[in-house]
Amino acid sequence: MRDLSRAMENLDRNKDQLRQSPILSFPDFLQQVIEHPNRIIRNVYQVYSDLIDSLVDDGIDEYDNDPESIRFLKYDCTRLFVEGSDRPFFADRLFANRLMRHVDSFKLGSKQNKIYIFDGPHGSGKSTFLNNLLRSFENYANSPEGSRYEVIWRLKHDHLVGGVHSLNSLTDKLAWVLENDGKTELATEMKCACKSDTDLGGYFDVPCPSHDNPLLLIPKEVRRKFFDDLFEDDVFKWQLFTEKKYEWLFHEEPCTICVSLYQALLQKFRDPQKVMECVCARPYVFNRRLGEGVSVFNPGDRPLRNPIMHNPIIQRSLDSVLADGKHVSYLYSRYAKINNGIYALMDVKSHNTERLMELHNIISDGVHKVEDIEEKVNSLLFALMNPEDKTLLADLRAFSDRVEYINIPYVLDLQTEVDIYRENFGKHIDESFLPRVLHNFARVIIATRLRTKSEAMEEWIGEPEKYAMYCDTNLQLLKMEIFTGYIPKWLAEEDVAQFTAKRRHKIVAESESDGWKGLSGRDSIKLFNEFYSTYAREDKLIDMAMLGKFFRKYCKQDRDILPMGFLDSLLRMYNYTVLQEVKESLYFYNEEQISRDIINYMFAVNFDVGTTEICGFTGERLDITEAFFHRMETRLQIDPKMSVSFRNSVQKSYTTTALPQEMLRDGLPITKTSLYIHLYEKCTHNLKEKVLEPFLKNENFRRAVKDYNQEDFKTYDKKIQNDVHFMMENLQHKYLYSRQGAKEICIYVIDNNLARQFSGLVE
Ligand SMILES: [Zn+2]
Questions:
Q1: Order of all β-strands in the sheet with 380-385
Q2: Which of 183, 308, 392, 578 could be joined to 178 by an S-S link, Cβ 3.0–4.6 Å?
Q3: Within a domain: residue 17?
Q4: End-to-end Cα spacing for the chain
Q5: 738 to each of 118, 160, 733, 741, how far by Cα in Å?
Q6: Are residues 587 and 561 in the same domain?
Q7: Neighbours of ion ligand 1 (CB under 5 A)
Q8: 677 is in which domain, residue-wise?
Q9: Distance, CA 379 to ligand 1 centroid (Å)?
Q10: Cα(408)–Cα(343) distance, rounded to whole angstroms?
Q11: Cross-strand bridge partners of residue 583
Q12: pLDDT value at residue 646
């Protein structure tokens, strides 16, 4: 038999996680308040906004210095919606910004009294969103940094009266008999079974079903003075007395049960301090499954047959203690259990429609009745809704100031869409694609979700045709970039200048109407699965041709899913972009070479043709010949007839300004002299225009690209080998191509003759 003790010890270790629920006396509780005032003095709205603050870092503005920025920020919601979740939710940039504005409204702390309805089409992930939000809330509210206290009354049994007391003494007697009879175990078992939560050796506890903050038990009229004396004159005290978010502490009353119990005990003891001795505090423990603090209803959940809750044991104990005084009815509704917590409706349909109506009436009136008793509901109220259910709620519209809609449409930000594929299929999917192709898959999916016409975009870009080479005529591709927080480099200067804050607001506001049609989150995952399993191969990366083929076939089945010509535009944008990458990769190499060549030239003009010198700056050995000068002068586009006078002027400038003044006197490096800068600009300007010439005119260069990584590559001339090698390296380092991908993309550029296609456009 295997010894189990070690394995079982693990369970003991878990003991620490048992939710300790220490009950504090009121003075001990006040000590806690003094030590952690920010934590303990919070209502549910503050806890909610603190939760978001603690799990979502400040947003990032990629264009921080842009004076027209509208603070449309990148938020990382991973800790809120993804980490620790079985079914994560991905908030796109638009929704994340919307959510943050919604939370901002709580920070100010005005009284909410609203139902927040998250409104989105089928398959937009609404319920995943809400489940993750509630999970995070529950975790946070039960953690040390998120926890608060609630009232629990601890009352002494009146030994002269019957009721629970007599029942207890009966069990005690029975246990005593058993014990004397030698049946100790049975006796202990018996005592344990009879000892309820509410009976603690002469005392019994009465929890406040509404989870009131114990501070509310301090009579309203003395609260200001009380807190003034409780806290020292520090920053917190100043905030407490001035900030709107703390107003509730001075205005709110405890629940009816607490109020009437307080009154009854005051009548009995005739001493407020003695009453407060009965008030204790314990952590407010949230438990969605038990409906404590968080309650979630599905449309199919039937209403309770009896919506009023009792606790006969507590009631009997109360009756016994207050026998000669006022009667306190210990009854409450389900709403009490979520007071200071969250009440959520998953979909407004069937029974949830009635619940929403009821909620609406409650917040309109501020209270609701449980038999004769008034119960208040200060909770966060959330509901999810599908667009088609909105029509059922014509009544609700009349009270629209009590309802706030927050749109949660399909994902419109391609970065997030790609993250969803990675989450569902694994991060390794990237390795099967040429760079950008995976994102282009997401672009097609998002295009099905966007409205074709966009007023804001049309108003901004008068003639979309001018961008025909890298954007569709409906400007959907441009809009997608903006939704992702990116301002494309291909935009003309005048359009960037016209991209004012006002325009940005309008475009982002328009996003509220996008994402209500097209392929849902579920559809896109299904489609991606089909695409990926068809085309992912070991020996060939997924390219744009495969993407085009796949979606053209799909469009044949559903002709209206994409606007006409979208796939062609997407391909053009892709071609333009990869050509830029290839160009930059080739040019980047030249930059260093150009710099060295210019320095050598500046140095060489000081010597006669036919000599050999070591350049004092680059350390290179220079054979100063006509051909040497000529190479640089062609690059600078100097007319050969003018070459001698040009050389003389360079030498003059070098010996009068660059060397004696800028370098020797001012200590500048040669690359900072005005002569160098002038030559460099002249040279690069001409070169940028010609950088693609090897792709256009040099057959050897093109063949060398195809032979790269193969034995034949070594047969090409050294200069070509160097250029090709450098270009391949840059593609890998700067644009994250794999070795194979870098070669594939260069061959793609050659085979499709992209350099020719875009030759008119090269800047
Ligand atoms: Zn209460």
A1: 294-297, 342-345, 380-385, 115-119, 403-407
A2: 183
A3: no
A4: 81
A5: 42, 86, 9, 5
A6: no
A7: 208, 210, 212, 254-255, 258
A8: 579-761
A9: 14
A10: 19
A11: none
A12: 94
631 and 672, same domain (yes or no): yes
pLDDT in tens, 468-487: 988 999 999 999 999 999 99
Report CA torsion sign: 671, 677, 682, 688. positive
Going by their DSSP bridges, the two strands 115-119 and 403-407 should be labelled as parallel
pLDDT at 162: 40
CA of 260 to the centre of ligand 1 (A): 9
Ligand 1 center to 708 CA (angstroms)? 78
Residue 748 domain-assigned (yes or no): yes
Give CA–CA dist 508/515, Å, rounded: 13
Task: Please give the Cα distance from 266 to 439 (Å, whole number).
Answer: 70
- Identity of residue 758: F
Q: Is 565 left (phi over 0), alpha (psi -120 to 50) or beta?
A: left
Measure 209 CA to ligand 1 centroid, in angstroms.
6
pTM for this entry: 0.82
Residues 523 and 586 in one domain: no
* Contact by Cβ (8 Å): 50, 385: no
Same domain, 622 and 496: no
Distance (Å) from CA 363 to ligand 1 centroid: 19
Most confident range, picked from 311-315, 318-322, 721-725: 311-315
3-state secondary structure 500-564: CHHHHHHHHHHHHHCCCCCCCHHHHHHHHHHHHHHHCCCCCCECHHHHHHHHHHHHHHCCCCCCC
- Sheet with 203-207, strands from edge to edge, namely 24-25, 279-283, 149-156, 203-207
90 CA to centre of ligand 1 in angstroms: 38
DSSP type of residue 654: I
Closest CA to 723 of 693, 686, 744, 748: 693
Q: Following DSSP, what letter does each residue of 175-209 receive, concatenated?
A: HHHHHHTT-HHHHHHHHHHH--TT-BTTEEEEE-T
Query: Are both 427 and 488 inside the same structural domain?
Result: yes
Check whether residue 584 and residue 515 sit in a common domain: no
The model's confidence at residue 509, banded by pLDDT at 50, 70 and 90, is very high
What spacing in Å lies between the alpha carbon of 275 and ligand 1's midpoint?
14
The alpha carbon of 257 and the centre of ligand 1 are apart by a number of angstroms equal to 6
DSSP 591: H
Alpha-carbon gap, residue 49 to 109, rounded angstroms: 10
